[in-house]
Each structure stands twice: as C-alpha cells, then as structure tokens.
C-alpha cells in the first residue's frame, strides 16, 4: 500500500527537507514544475503538430511559483506561453517570486482579469497553478471566470487541462471543492490530469480529479515512517504478494486452520442478506461457515443452503452458549437481522463473548441500526477485534456530530473530512470503522487510516447495488476467520476485503447483482495466480 498525505503532513515533509538542509525550496519548485511538464507529455504524447500554445494561470502563493517554472520549461521546448497572475507580484512568497523573476526575463505576465474576456485562441494546454495546498477559502470569482473563459474560447483545438497539485479550490484533506457564492467552480470537471508532488493527498482519492489517477512527481523528499493514510492495494509489487501477505489466500491447510465463521441471519423472508454474507465468507476462504437463524426460518434457509451449515438460534443466551465453542473464530451480524431489541441483545452478547479472546466480529446494517437511539451502548461494548461497516446513513446515526461536520461543503468552516471523521469514530468506538462508498475509508483505534477508492481505473459504479454491502461484511468475516488473521490488524483484513469486493465487481462488469460477487471470487483468485 502506498502512503497518502494531508496538506499538513506534506508541509511538514517540505519544511523538514528545507530546514534539514538537504533540499532548497527553489530546487523543490524547479523539480515540481519540470515534473508537471514531463507528466503532461507522458499522457498526451508529443506536441500536436502546428499547435504549441499554452496558458498558465498562476496564483499568489507557491502553487503560482510552480506555474512560472512550467511556463519557462515549455518556452524552452519551443512553446508559445501566455501567463496570467492573480494577485500582486510584489507580494509573492520568496521562492515563487524568484521563479516569477526568471519568467519575466523571458515573457510577459498579464493580470488574470485580462483572461476573462475570452479573447484569443484556445490553447492546447492549460495549467491551473492558481491554488494548491494553501487554499483556505473559496477561490476568487475572477479566477474561476478566467479559467472557464480560456476553456471556452471560440477558436482553437480542444484544450487539455492540467491541475498543478490539485484543481484550484480543492481542499486536499477532504476532496471538497470550495466554491464561492458568486460562481460555479468548473475546475474539477474540466481537469484532464492532476499532477501532485511526492505522494497523493487524501482528496485525490476521495474525489476524482482528472480522467485518470493523479500523476505523482518525485521532488526528492525522503520517505519517512510517520503514520500516514495508506491507499489500499498492492504497492510496488503484484497484488498476489500483497494479498498473500495480508490474508490466508492461496494457503492450504486444514479447514479449521482457515477458520469457522458464524453468520446471524434474520427471520422468515428476510434471509437473503445473511445468506449472501455467508456465501461470501465461504468463497473468500473460511474453512467452514454456519448460518444461524430463528427456528421458524430454518425451513426457508434449509431449502437454499448446501455447503453452509444451518443452526437454529433462539436469542442472546443461546448465542452465548454457541460462542462458548472457540472454534467459531469470527462472527458476522447485521445483514437482514432486523432493527430492534433482539438484535441489540445479540450484538451485545457476541461482543461480550469475544471481548477477551481476540475473536473478530463484523457489525453491519441492522446491527448498527439497532443502536441508533443509544450509540454509547455500542461504543462501550466494542473491542479491538470489531470491524463496523456503516454506509454514510448508518454512520450518521451512530456519529451524528461527526457526520454533521463532514456534510458541509465548506471544510474550511468545519474542518472535518471523511478521513478525519472516520478516524475520530474509530477512536471513539475503540474498533475499526469501514465507511462505505465510492471512496471507502477505513480507520482503526491505533490511528491508522486507509482509503480504498473505486475511482479512476478501479471505478465500478455498478457495485452500488442492493446487497453489495452484505457481501462485503461476509468477505471481512471470512478473511478474519483463519489462524493467520490473528497476526493481522482488522484494518488490513478489511482493506483487503474492500479491494477484493471491487475487484469482483470490475471483473464481472455492468449487469452485476450482489449474488454475482462471491461467484466471481474464483476467477479473481485464478487471475491473481492463486
Ligand atoms: N514549499 C515548497 O517548497 C514547495 C511547494 N510547492 C507548491 O506550493 C504549493 C503550496 O504553496 P502555498 O503554501 O504558498 O499555497 P498556495 O496553494 O499556492 O496558496 C497560498 C496563497 O493563496 C492565498 N489564498 C489562499 N486561499 C485563497 C483564496 N481563496 N482566495 C485568495 N487567496 C487565497 C494565500 O493568501 P492568504 O491566505 O495569506 O491571503 C496564499 O497567498 C503546493 O500546492 C505546491 O504546488 C511545490 O513547488 C513543491 C515545493
Ligand atoms: N459508486 C460506487 N462505486 C463503487 N462502489 C460503490 C459505489 N456505491 C456503493 N458502492 C459500494 O457498494 C456497497 C453498498 O453497501 P450498502 O450501502 O451497505 O448497501 P446494501 O445495504 O444494499 O448492501 C458498499 O460496499 C459500497 O462501498
Ligand atoms: K492548482
């Protein structure tokens, strides 16, 4: 997994490099500007014949400094470059000012308002170097207007838009775009390529910022082992090795080595969700799976199940007795279980019985919904082996204060993004939280956090289908059951499950329904080489 940074973490790295004396700010900026140009040509190929015109929009901070470097590099390559500046050159920070001076020795700089008229030909390349990680309020209307006017100039070829570090106006910690009251910000939608420095920032994987993954330029900062957010997926090696290191996938052994998952199911006519969770747990590698349901739901389930075992369950006391068998190594509660007192009692019993012995528990759907009135009871009962898998609505019912602060589109006013709110929730719960969505965010009480983004080349919008969440809960429970799971933090197993979940959806393709997900696992494993 690769690291992803907040703006503050990136600043700290830059400051450490500069103050530690192993990099000069100007050197970093030169590498940044050169890196943006290199990354751009890697994507668009060589210059389009006859049209070698670029516009660079520069802002009042160091992002603008990168813009002046870009202008100079392109000029040296023979491009015609127009540069517009928002703000006063006399007030640029020192490194950006130096880069400004180096550019004005070559070509002019116009005030940004001059670009608003829409006069002139559309350039082949447009660089947005107005605001980077230093944005702290919605961008000035004139900046958004100039950008839009250049993109929509009447004549010229299609323009390729490159965002330097991030589309201007994006809060890189939250992925939210800060839009002023007096204008729509179209920068995000129009951006073709985002080029960032050293490592992606959280927002790059919470929101799509371009038509492909952001390019990352190495500007020569040292990697450090401080705690940062990780991007779920293989890093630097094949997915097979990563999954083998995190899970028991591909390992042989006795079925009991691969663990026994207990899935609790709902009453008559409500059993589909738990059956899908159970099947997913079995397919992902659990040695055995037992589904336990109210006695009256036994006939319905018996008619549906073969490899999955079935047991009747009266209530919380019966569950305690069942869990006295320690071979039941992970438990999944929630899908189709029903919201109410019975489910609350079952959840509390499962948490109590597993609290001391490190067994893993996955709580989803109704297991969470049953605590909407009294989340504190759930927080007190949770332990370090628990993973909860809320969608945004379930998250909001358990953590209304955090959700309220995340919903605002202006994070400058509220300060909480999806990653930070998930981290706070995990801390409050003392357990791992997986907050579902197109960008799935995971956090654990040790302070670790991850993003799994079904974006860019991993987009799978057809995964948003009824029951997909039940499958994910089963996958986590299945991966958490084996002997090997005890040596892995729940967050690593949940992250691997989220990756497999999306991988199944992508390999199946559109038309997917939730039942297809576990059935796709054998092909996913085969393709991985297991
Ligand atoms: N440090 C390094 O060595 C390297 C840095 N690098 C580059 O630097 C970028 C970060 O630079 P940065 O910190 O100067 O922030 P940046 O995003 O340019 O904006 C800050 C300026 O904007 C202003 N401002 C903010 N919001 C505003 C608004 N809505 N409307 C109007 N003004 C607003 C704010 O002014 P103030 O808030 O003080 O009024 C300030 O003047 C980073 O993204 C990367 O591209 C790379 O070269 C690698 C090496
Ligand atoms: N646009 C999307 N792209 C990728 N995955 C998505 C998208 N929308 C939803 N998902 C995933 O689909 C699942 C939906 O789960 P959930 O909301 O619990 O639905 P259900 O209760 O129907 O199972 C989650 O794993 C979520 O991450
Ligand atoms: K920018």
Structure description:
This protein is α/β, with parallel strands linked by helices and 530 residues long. It folds into two domains: 2-225, YjeF N-terminal domain (Rossmann fold, 3-Layer(aba) Sandwich); 239-528, Ribokinase (UDP-N-acetylmuramoyl-L-alanine:D-glutamate ligase). The chain is 39% helix and 15% strand. It contains 20 helices and 18 strands. The chain has helices at 7-19, 25-44, 62-76, 94-104, 141-151, 187-190, 239-246, 272-283, 298-302, 316-323, 341-354, 365-369, 375-381, 392-398, 400-407, 411-414, 418-429, 468-479, 490-508, 516-528; strands at residues 2-4, 53-58, 80-85, 109-111, 125-129, 160-164, 193-197, 215-217, 229-231, 260-264, 288-293, 309-312, 328-333, 360-363, 386-388, 432-435, 439-443, 449-453. The strands form two sheets. It has an eleven-stranded mixed beta sheet with strand order 1-9-18-17-16-15-14-13-10-11-12, sandwiched between helices. A seven-stranded parallel beta sheet has the order 4-3-2-5-6-7-8, with helices on both faces. Helix 9 (298-302) links the parallel strand 11 and strand 12 (309-312). Helix 3 runs parallel beside helix 4 (94-104), helix 8 (272-283) runs parallel beside helix 20 and helix 15 (400-407) packs antiparallel against helix 17 (418-429). The longest helix has 20 residues, at 25-44. The chain is elongated and about 80 Å long. Potassium ion (K) binds next to strand 5 and strand 6.
């Amino acid at each position: 997994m690769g690291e992803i940074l907040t703006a503050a973490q990136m600043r700290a790295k830059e400051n450490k490099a500069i103050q530690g004396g192993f990099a000069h700010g100007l050197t970093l900026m030169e590498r940044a500007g050169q890196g943006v140009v290199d990354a751009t040509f890697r994507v668009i190929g060589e210059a389009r014949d006859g049209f070698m015109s670029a516009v660079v929009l520069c802002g009042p901070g160091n992002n603008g400094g990168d813009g002046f470097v870009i202008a100079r590099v392109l000029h040296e390559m023979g491009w015609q470059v127009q540069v517009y500046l928002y703000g006063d050159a006399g007030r640029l920070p020192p490194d950006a000012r130096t880069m400004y001076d180096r550019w004005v020795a070559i070509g002019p700089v116009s005030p940004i308002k001059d670009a608003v008229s829409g006069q002139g030909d559309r350039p082949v390349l447009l660089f947005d170097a107005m605001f980077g990680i230093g944005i702290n309020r919605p961008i000035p209307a004139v900046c958004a207007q100039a950008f839009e006017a250049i993109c929509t100039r009447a004549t010229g070829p299609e323009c390729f838009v490159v965002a330097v570090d991030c589309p201007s106006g994006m809060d890189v910690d939250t992925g939210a775009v800060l839009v002023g009251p007096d204008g729509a910000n179209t920068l995000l939608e129009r951006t073709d390529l985002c080029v960032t420095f050293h490592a992606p920032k959280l927002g790059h994987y919470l929101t799509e910022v371009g038509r492909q993954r952001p390019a990352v330029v190495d500007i020569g900062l040292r990697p450090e082992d401080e705690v940062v957010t990780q991007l779920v997926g293989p890093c630097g090696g094949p997915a097979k090795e990563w999954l083998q290191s995190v899970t028991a996938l591909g390992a042989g052994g006795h079925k009991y080595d691969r663990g026994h998952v207990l899935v609790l199911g709902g009453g008559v006519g409500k059993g589909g969700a738990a059956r899908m969770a159970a099947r997913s747990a079995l397919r992902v590698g659990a040695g055995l799976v037992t589904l336990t349901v109210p006695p009256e739901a036994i006939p319905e389930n018996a008619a549906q199940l073969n490899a999955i075992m079935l047991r009747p369950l009266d209530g919380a006391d019966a569950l305690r007795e069942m869990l006295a068998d320690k071979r039941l190594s992970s438990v999944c509660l929630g899908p189709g279980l029903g919201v109410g007192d019975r489910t609350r009692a079952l959840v509390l019993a499962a948490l109590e019985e597993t609290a001391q012995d490190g067994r893993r528990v996955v709580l989803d759907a109704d297991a969470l919904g049953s605590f909407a009135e009294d989340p504190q009871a759930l927080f007190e009962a949770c332990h370090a082996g628990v993973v909860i898998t809320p969608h945004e609505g379930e998250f909001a019912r358990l953590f209304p204060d955090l959700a309220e602060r995340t919903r605002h589109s202006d994070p400058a006013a509220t300060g909480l993004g999806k990653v930070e709110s998930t981290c706070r929730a995990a801390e409050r719960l003392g357990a791992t939280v997986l907050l579902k969505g197109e960008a799935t965010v995971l956090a654990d009480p040790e302070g670790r956090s991850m993003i799994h983004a079904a974006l860019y080349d991993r987009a799978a919008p057809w995964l948003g289908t009824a029951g997909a969440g039940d499958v994910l809960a089963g996958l986590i429970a299945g991966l958490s059951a084996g002997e090997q799971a005890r040596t892995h933090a729940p967050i690593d197993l949940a992250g691997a499950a989220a990756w497999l979940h999306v991988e199944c959806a992508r390999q199946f393709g559109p038309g997917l329904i939730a039942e297809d997900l576990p059935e796709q696992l054998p092909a996913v494993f085969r393709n991985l080489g297991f």
